[in-house]
Design a protein that fits this description.
The protein has one domain: Alpha-Beta Barrel (TIM Barrel), CATH 3.20.20. It is 46% helix and 12% strand. It is built from 14 helices and eight strands. An eight-stranded parallel β-barrel has the order 1-2-3-4-5-6-7-8, surrounded by eleven helices. Helix 2 links the parallel strand 1 and strand 2. Helix 5 packs parallel to helix 6, helix 8 crosses helix 9 and helix 12 packs antiparallel against helix 13. The radius of gyration is 19 Å and the shape is globular.
Length: 359
């Protein structure tokens, strides 16, 4: 199946009541493992590339790998998404390379470290959205800064993350401001700040309402029931993955991620895209460590990578099933970018959230 846009996929997810995990890729092994999982459960998939991934693999390599995946897995709808675009150029260059969706993260300035004010965020996100929609490409925005409600700090991912201590207001998306932001920018999806953060060390204890603000999801959904919400930093960091990683020489301190059951609650209240990266990294790294320890004379990279790919496939399959994504691919057919662009221009696609604001 040809690539589809994030907007098309999330509209379908809203109609059917499911969420979609978004997995970051950097190389062929990750791509093949994720696609194998999607195909095995007939799920559509969101493949994300950060700026770090684009620097590591190169735009041409990433783009050609996605093209290969379209041929190898013809029944799987694929969204190719730019994760955490830091400025207009990052987003525009992604569109030129065939990305069907971009995130303009104006919550931070272009350095990816300094929190930006609301006016900056709104203006740059609106400019990117205008250009993207003219091309039929979807846009995800962000309001509020990712970071821990326990420490008040963010966690950098591929060089992207707020530095210093953030205020409580910065760490939680204001539901009223979300209405203004989405209406002003016309974004297709909104990443919200609710206490989640990048990396493995999200919470020092099982998260409750004090450190994982699910109420923010519910309050935004009450005001913008048609808006597609995005949860970043949503790896669950399950205990069994931590244990396996440490069993074979790792030194990961005990930590808590976002429980799958909390994500499932979010899906009931409009969360449609769930970003997962750390779980994928730990699953693969644990198998790399296992082979190193159990077969110390092994030097064939394939003997390390194949078990790692199998572990990643199993993890991704479990998330597709938990979020209700499994089985949804067969009812999707690709809408060309040109058609999406016409729908944006006609007003039939936007600003979608403003059509039914409940206050």
């Amino acid at each position: 199946m040809a690539r589809i846009t994030l907007r098309q996929l999330l509209d379908h997810a809203a109609e059917k009541g499911y969420g979609v995990p978004a997995f970051n890729i950097n190389n062929m092994e990750q791509l093949l493992a994720i696609m194998a999982a999607a195909q095995s459960v007939e799920a559509p998939v969101i493949l994300q590339a950060s700026r770090g991934a684009r620097s590591y693999a190169g735009d041409v390599m990433l783009s050609k790998m996605i093209e290969a995946a379209e041929v190898m897995f013809p029944s799987t709808p694929i969204v190719m998404h730019q994760d955490h675009g830091n400025n207009e150029q990052t987003c525009y260059s992604a569109m030129l390379m065939g990305f069907t969706s971009v995130m303009m993260d104006g919550s931070l300035k272009a350095d990816g470290k300094t929190p930006a004010d609301y006016a900056y965020n709104t203006a740059i996100t609106a400019r990117v959205t205008e250009v993207a929609h003219d091309l039929g490409v979807s846009v995800e925005g962000e309001l509020g800064c990712l970071g821990s409600l326990e420490t008040g700090q963010g966690e950098a991912e591929d060089g992207h993350g707020a530095e210093g201590v953030l205020s409580h207001d910065q760490l939680l998306t204001d539901p009223e401001q979300a209405v203004e932001f989405v209406t002003a920018t016309g974004v297709d999806a909104l990443a919200i700040a609710m206490g989640t953060s990048h990396g493995a060390y999200k919470f020092s204890r099982k998260p409750d309402g004090d450190i994982l603000a699910m109420n923010v999801v519910k309050e935004i959904n009450a005001r913008l029931p048609n808006l597609h919400l995005v949860m970043h930093g949503s790896s669950s960091v399950p205990e069994e993955l931590q244990e396996r990683f440490n069993r074979f020489g790792g030194k990961m301190p005990a930590t808590w991620g976002v429980p799958v059951e909390e994500i499932q609650v979010g899906i009931k209240y409009g969360v449609r895209k769930i970003n997962i990266d750390t779980d994928c990294r730990i699953a693969m790294a644990a198998e790399l460590r296992r082979v190193c320890q159990e077969v110390p004379d092994e030097f064939d990279p394939r003997k390390f990578m194949k078990p790692s790919m199998d572990a990643l496939t199993a993890l991704c399959r479990s998330r597709f099933e938990a979020f209700g994504t499994a089985g949804q691919a067969k009812s999707l057919s690709a809408i060309p970018l040109a058609t999406m662009a016409k729908r944006y221009r006609s007003g039939s696609l936007g600003p979608r959230p403003a059509l039914s604001v409940a206050v």
